[in-house]
Write a structure and sequence with these properties.
Four Helix Bundle (Hemerythrin (Met), subunit A), Heat Shock Protein 90, two-stranded antiparallel sheet
Amino acid sequence: MKLKPDLLLKITFILSLSLLLILSLLSYRGMQQYITYANEVNHTHQVINNIEAIMSLMKDAETGQRGYLLTQDSIFLEPYHTALKEMNPIVQQTADLVKDNRLQTLRIDTLRRLIDEREKILNQAMNLKNQYPQGKQVLYEGKKKMDEIRQLINRMKVFENDLLIERNAQEAKTRSVVSIYTVIIGFCALSLLTGYFFSVRRELKHRMRTQNELEKKVEALKHSNSELEQFAYVASHDLQEPIRKMQAFSSRLLLKYKTDLPEEAQFILEKINDSARRMQALIDDLLRFSRLVNKTGVKELTDLNKVVGLIQEDFSELITEKSVIIYSDSLPTVEAFPSQMRQLFQNLISNSLKFSKKEVAPEIKINCELAKGSEIATAKDHEKSIDFYKISVIDNGIGFDEKYLEKIFVIFQRLHNRTEYSGTGIGLAVCKRIMSNHEGYILAEGEVGKGATFIIYLPKFDGNH
């Protein structure tokens, strides 16, 4: 099954948008991971820097101690006291940084203990500065503690450096993935934009081509309407003139020479007269139909109750003669060409009166209700949600066979012989043309011997026209 261009475009758009969304989510997730790894790398750098700072402070304290022991000058105690003062905050900060790692936490606790012990030895050495054997022993113990601290710090640095290498690798890998996602997203976005640019361009070209074709058709239609108007003029003058003369001369012959003419000649003249009258009626109906092609005039608010009332007055004699009963719901006020609405209901009511049963009093019901365009089989897509007035003209006449549904709205098409029922066969075609002029619809239902129903759908007036 071949997809329609509009549907294919929608599917392509949805798939492209979905792909772009998925890639964006993956890119966002990758970016979050990259930020996490970058923070972890910075965290490791900070731990390493702190460890090196601790080692440096221990060396400063030891250097200050040596200077003091050698010179007995208290100025050398400044780096000693400064180092001891700054040591604890850095050790505590380092402990906070590695609290998520059990091994490093144990090591920092050990380091804290060794630093405390080394600090005591430093203080003890300075107190025993003039006692040679004891002071020397204390210095050896201090060197031993310093070596332990140095080894422990080296182990911590090795661990953090290994961790740094691993996290740098993860950061680099994530950065590469994010870069790839970014390139793919950019490519997809560019492809999508390019695709829609060409789609819109193609659609614009198609619309321009369609518009040009439509303008040509409108021009052709105007030309056709112009020719139709010329034909109407010819029909109303040039064609009717000879027909009137035929009627006049045949009537004069019958009137003047009726007693002298044989019966066959009289019959022929009467036939000529009847044919001329029928031709005159056909031309009049054709003219009336042709005038409906052009929507001349201005639509007005038209009360259909008044329209039906005027038509009943027009047919008052025939209604009385046939004892016709007409029921009518309250009808709406619509935006329409008043004369065309009158002609529409006149044709429908006339049709019901004409095709009534001889032995039954005619009944005509005019019902009205609101309906959606979706219940009209032939409605256009944009009309499906529009409100329509559904007006049904129902009679109890002779009805018709629904196999002739397509035929009854065609101009000059008849379902009965002219000898049975008068008329030219144009009335329902006029009704259809009127409904077309009002963006409406007319449908028919019927059954032989059980009457006919004509349903008209008129767009509901919303007050914004």
